[in-house]
Structure formats: C-alpha cells, structure tokens
Design goal:
Elements (H helix, E strand, L loop, with lengths): L1 H37 L6 H19 L4 H32 L3
Helix pairs in contact: 1-2, 1-3, 2-3
Length: about 100
C-alpha cells in the first residue's frame, strides 16, 4: 500500500510540474504578445494569443486530477495569465478598430 501512495504522490508532483510548465509557457507567450503590441507589430500576436489559450486549456484539463490544495497553488498563476490574456485581446481589438481592420 505504501508503494501505491508513493507512486501516486510522485505522479501528482509530475502532473503539477507539467501544469506549471504549461502556465510558464503561456506567460511567456502572453508577454511576447504584449511586447509585439507595444511595438505595433500585430502580425505574430494572434498566433501567440492562440498559444496562450491552448496552454491554459491544457493546464485546466490536467487540474482535474489534482486535489484542491494542489489546484489552489496554481490559482494565482492562472489568474495572472488570464488577466494578461484578456488585456492583450482587448488591446488587439482596440488596435484593429483604430486601424480599420477586423
């Protein structure tokens, strides 16, 4: 029984680390998108934001296997990335309206 609980703990740690790597990637992508917006270089932004959304979806799916305490450890990262994604999308919509694009 002890081996089973050790294996479960190891698996949970690996899943948590994998989720954190997805969130770190999402943060890098959203930061790059914000930098591109600030330089008015909109071409790569859509792709970057799609990568952010994909990484968030993958991480959220994996959250289901973690316990509440482990999920709570990631709440701040999820919130920070989600808010940055919303800002970037909003900024992109504003730039598109200003330039007459949709």
């Amino acid at each position: 029984m002890e081996k089973l609980s050790d294996l479960r703990a190891k698996t949970d740690r690996q899943i948590l680390e994998f989720i954190e790597s997805k969130l770190d990637a999402a943060w890098r992508f959203v930061s790059l998108a914000e930098a591109e917006f600030s330089q008015e270089n909109r071409a790569p932004v859509r792709e970057l934001l799609e990568k952010v959304a994909q990484a968030l979806r993958e991480a959220q799916t994996l959250l289901l296997v973690l316990d509440e305490r482990q999920r709570g450890q990631l709440d701040g990262k999820f919130d920070r990335i989600s808010q940055a994604l919303e800002r970037a999308v909003s900024q992109g919509e504003t730039l598109a309206k200003c330039s007459g694009q949709s």
